[in-house]
Specification:
CATH class of the largest domain: Alpha Beta
Number of strands: 12
Number of helices: 10
Radius of gyration: 21 Å
CATH superfamily of the largest domain: 4-hydroxy-3-methylbut-2-enyl diphosphate reductase, catalytic domain
CATH architecture of the largest domain: 3-Layer(aba) Sandwich
Helix content: 40-55%
Strand order of the largest sheet: 1-12-10-11
Largest sheet: 4 strands, parallel
CATH topology of the largest domain: Cobalt-precorrin-4 Transmethylase, domain 1
Strand content: 15-25%
Length: 284
């Protein structure tokens, strides 16, 4: 059995940056460090941060002293301002690519465009994006939903950084029929595109795909969908302990990919466990 890890898999720039910022902040013993919600969508990395004394809170009101960290997904600007109003040092770990999307939405709002966001409703990044439009943005997750929007004179489209390029093309096409003027900003992260392409290419030549990442990670879920769409049996796991030997039956080539919040050490543990399972005589 051959095990191949996708060329582009695991941590992205934004996640690495966020973790480095928090790690440096945690080195200062003179103050506590709090993350506003989960810094990234990976329970195992969050547990490692907690072991270093980094605490997670749901609201700014829970913090009376110490530094507060804004997650890589970005937050409502009102939340950031609330932290500053309390006199708390703010560490902005928002991914630069998400910040770019924030800027586009603010520009569209200033210029009188109706803002449409292609994204997953309820996702923290999407909530932060919508807040930049003063809560007036319309969120769609498919071309069918875009088609149901009312006709507008001027419409601006911004996309969650982990969406599929194909979905952006489809939604933009439908919106073009629903307004007189359409401005589109492709704010999909380039690393996301490469990760998705690598996963699809590997899935097409594999007998089985394992997607590693947190179950609350939108980009990991998207990788699972892309791999499964090729017709290759696909399973998502958070850790090596979740691997089922039954999945490996009949597989000659096994592909592994990982979401943007998945650290290399978890991917390595998954690959090592797969090798162990193969060595234990799983039928090929």
């Amino acid at each position: 059995m051959e095990i191949i890890v996708a060329e582009n898999a695991g941590f992205c720039f934004g996640v690495k940056r966020a973790l480095e910022l928090v790690a440096r902040a945690a080195e200062d013993p003179s103050r506590l460090v709090y993350t506003l919600g989960a810094l990234i969508h990976n329970p195992q990395e969050i547990a490692r941060l907690e072991a270093r004394g980094v605490r997670q809170v749901d609201t700014v009101d829970e913090v009376s002293d110490g530094a507060i960290v804004l997650s890589a997904h970005g937050v409502d600007p009102a939340v950031e301002q609330a932290a500053r109003d309390r006199g708390l040092p703010v560490i902005d770990a928002t991914c630069p690519f998400v910040k770019r999307a924030h800027g586009h939405i603010e520009e569209l709002s200033r210029e009188g465009y109706s803002v449409v966001i292609l994204g997953d409703p309820g996702h923290r990044e999407v909530a932060g994006l919508a807040a930049r439009a003063g809560g007036k943005a319309e969120i769609v997750s498919s071309a069918e939903e875009a088609e149901r929007l009312p006709f507008r004179e001027k419409c601006g489209l911004v996309v969650q950084t982990t969406q599929r390029p194909a979905a952006l093309r489809e939604v933009a096409g439908r919106l073009a029929e629903r307004c007189r003027e359409l401005r589109v900003y492709n704010t999909i992260c380039e690393a996301t595109v490469k990760r998705q392409e690598s996963a699809r290419e590997l899935a097409e030549k594999s007998d089985l795909m394992i997607v590693v990442g947190g179950r609350n990670s939108a980009n990991t879920k998207r990788l699972e969908e892309i791999c499964a769409a090729t017709g290759t049996p696909t399973h998502q796991v958070e850790t090596a302990e979740e691997l089922d030997p039954e999945w490996l039956h009949g597989a000659q080539q096994l592909g592994v990919t990982a979401g943007a919040s998945t650290p290399a050490w978890i991917v390595e543990e998954v690959v090592e466990r797969l090798r162990e399972l193969a060595g234990e005589g799983v039928p090929a």
